[in-house]
């Protein structure tokens, strides 16, 4: 149910009694971005586009990584939630995610964002906002309450993007160690 600040209840004849969804205060991380940027489900034939976007951004060829990730989200995931954003009929961004139905002692479903990428030529064109907005809308429909991801500590631009998207540090600590000490 909408909060009272978002809902105007008519008190006399002629007063509007509707929610104003056009108000910027009610937007969920640029909700309307997904209206400006077409977003669709990820397909198996998107591999070349994902690799091209990533290569353009990182100047590295990580085609084996993306082939493995694409296979994981298309074949091993029970619920497909990965998305692609398009401009002029071609992919310009993507978000690869999955829904886990219990992990590390948690019984409720949780979404995990593995990878997000936006063609450098389309950054600051709301592509990332459209992807995140559509992902969150899809996850709400699936009744997933929480989304998590990991980011390198020094990737300041990605940290800033995730902060704007409403992410905050979690109560969990990720631990790791080398299998073979140096």
Task: Kindly describe this structure.
- There is one protein chain.
- The protein is an alpha+beta fold and 182 residues long.
- The chain has a single domain, classed as Aminopeptidase, CATH 3.40.630.30.
- It has 5 helices and 5 strands; from the N terminus they run αβααβββαβα.
- Helix 4 (127-141) links the parallel strand 4 (110-118) and strand 5 (146-149).
- The longest helix has 15 residues, at 127-141.
Overall structural domain count: 1
Instruction: Report the top-level CATH class.
Output: Alpha Beta
Strand content: 15-25%
Nearest-integer average pLDDT: 81
Tell me the Rg in angstroms: 19 Å
Shape: globular
Q: How many β-strands, per DSSP? A: 5
CATH topology assignment: Aminopeptidase
List the strand order in the largest sheet.
1-2-3-4-5
The class by helix and strand makeup works out as alpha+beta
Briefly summarize what is shown:
By secondary structure, the chain is of the alpha+beta class.
Q: Which terms would index this structure?
A:
single chain, 182 residues, alpha+beta, Aminopeptidase, 5-stranded mixed beta sheet, 5 helices, 5 strands, globular
Secondary-structure blueprint:
Layout: H1 33-36, E1 39-41, H2 47-58, H3 63-76, E2 83-87, E3 90-100, E4 110-118, H4 127-141, E5 146-149, H5 156-164
Parallel strand pairs: 4-5
Antiparallel strand pairs: 1-2, 2-3, 3-4
């Amino acid at each position: 149910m909408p909060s009272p600040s978002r809902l105007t209840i008519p008190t006399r004849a002629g007063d509007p009694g509707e929610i104003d969804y056009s108000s910027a205060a009610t937007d969920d991380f640029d909700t309307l971005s997904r209206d400006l940027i077409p977003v669709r489900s990820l397909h198996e034939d998107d591999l070349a586009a994902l690799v091209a976007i990533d290569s353009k951004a990182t100047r590295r060829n990580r085609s084996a990584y993306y082939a493995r990730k694409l296979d994981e989200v298309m074949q091993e995931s029970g619920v497909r939630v990965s998305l692609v954003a398009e401009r002029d009929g071609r992919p310009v961004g993507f978000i690869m995610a999955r829904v886990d139905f219990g992990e590390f002692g948690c019984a409720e479903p949780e979404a995990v964002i593995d990878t997000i990428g936006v063609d450098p030529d389309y950054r600051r064109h709301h592509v990332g906002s459209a992807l995140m907005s559509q992902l969150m809308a899809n996850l709400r429909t699936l009744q997933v309450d929480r989304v998590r991801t990991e980011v390198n500590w020094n990737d300041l631009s990605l940290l800033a993007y995730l902060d704007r998207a409403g992410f905050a540090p979690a109560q969990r600590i990720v631990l790791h160690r080398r299998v073979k000490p140096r």
